[in-house]
Amino acid sequence: MEKALWYLIAGTRGGENRARIIRALEAKPRNANQLAEELDVGYNTVRHHLEMLEDHDVVERGGRTYGELYFLTDRFMRHWDEFETITEHLE
């Protein structure tokens, strides 16, 4: 998981937005539209980042329909400290 987090957050152009999405989901579950509005990022951009995060087991969907909520996975939460370390390098 640590390597995946370094790649997702610090190793690619969208890392800062993915970190913002993770922080928003840590506060409470949201759907893609809510995230787009709250973060002032395009809906398609948010969907792209959510798909990447889902592919790497950082987030999971609470359903498979339009408007489904996204949650942080238990596996990711066990690596929260590593996430914090990585995001320090973004600033």
Automatic annotation (TrEMBL):
InterPro entries per the UniProt record, alphabetical: ArsR-like_HTH, WH-like_DNA-bd_sf, WH_DNA-bd_sf
Protein origin, superkingdom: Archaea
Secretion signal span: none
CDD domains: HTH_ARSR (cd00090)
Pfam family, one: HTH_20
Protein name as annotated: ArsR family transcriptional regulator
